[in-house]
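Narrative summary of target 7.
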Amino acid sequence: MTSPKSVSRSASSAVAATSIASSLLTVQTSGAGFTDLTAEVAKFVRDARAREGAVTLFIRHTSASLTIQENADPTVLVDLTTALNRFAPENAGWRHDTEGPDDMPAHIKTMLTATSLHIPVLQGTLALGTWQAVYLVEHRARPHRREVVLQFIGATD
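Modeled conformation, tokenized:
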């Protein structure tokens, strides 16, 4: 086992988590692909007057998911889509195909990704890294109306 050469940590901060703010975000997708939700989540945090705490996102579906991924190079999202399609291809003999050949692969892709995310809020902003963005991932071929529950828990201004 190797030890890191340099490790540093900022001073801890403590606040009383006295506020809970919730909202339902409705997203109309245009079919399979990634929809950047970062600006909407940041707006929710601002509107909630969040200072320190955490925001949780939860998607209320089993054939779409949430992820935090790179926002600088769009080919990352293309490659992620390719990888998910390789893990769960259509027409692979799935029994569950009630809504078409992309139905079961969509459920598998959701299981491989996430239905909820937890993002720290520090000094009123999302504590995302420089190249990180929050995405809704639509796994179905046709457009869908998706609902994402947003909830902030923490201290407000």
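The beta strands are 19-28, 33-36, 50-59, 64-70, 116-122, 125-126, 132-138, 145-156.
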